[in-house]
Amino acid sequence: MKKRPAQLDSPWVTTIMKYGSAANTWLYRRSGGRFGGTWRVGSALRKPAPVCLLTTTGRRSGQARTVPLIYLRDGANVVLVASQGGAATNPQWYGNLSADPSVTIQIGPDVQRMTARTAGADERAALWPRLVELYDDYDSYQSWTDRTIPVVICEPTP
Questions:
Q1: Backbone angles phi, psi at 32, to 5 degrees
Q2: What global pTM score does this model have?
């Protein structure tokens, strides 16, 4: 296992990510995804990755929580990665959707209710190469942590 860069665990990075995500969400919503609709950091600098807005229900607060995330379309499904930059723990949004799988996904101006679930081992193995092709840093993130980074499949709610 490779070592996760220590600077990623700095309180400054956490603060920047928190406010950056809030700003991205605000811009995305107000522009219908024209602004904030692509990720251009790390391996996505040369090949931007598409971004959606995931809204979950806070498992303790009961309030709506929205985060911008890179996504992969798989037919009618939207696939997300709970990487948290290769941190040792899963992101809060993953805990929220594990407690309540009813989510909304916004892609551009379109908002859709969906049901989220964690991909099984075979599904994850099939999706992982496509996810890495979309955003190469996912392989680095997986090498930095002992946990198997969850892949989440969001399916349209009938």
A1: 65, 30
A2: 0.90
3-state SS of 26-64 is HHHHHHCCCCCCEECCHHHCCCCEEEEEEEEECCCCCCE
Q: Is the pLDDT of residue 57 over 70?
A: yes
pLDDT value of position 3: 75
123, pLDDT greater than 80:
yes
Burial of 29 (0-12, 13-18, 19+ CB in 10 A): middle
For 6-156, CATH number?
2.30.110.10
At 98, give phi and psi (nearest 5°). -70, -35
In sequence order, which ranges of 75-136 are alpha helices (DSSP H)?
92-99, 121-134
**What does DSSP assign to residue 90?**
-
Taking the C-alpha atoms of residue 64 and residue 149, their distance in angstroms, rounded to an integer, is 24
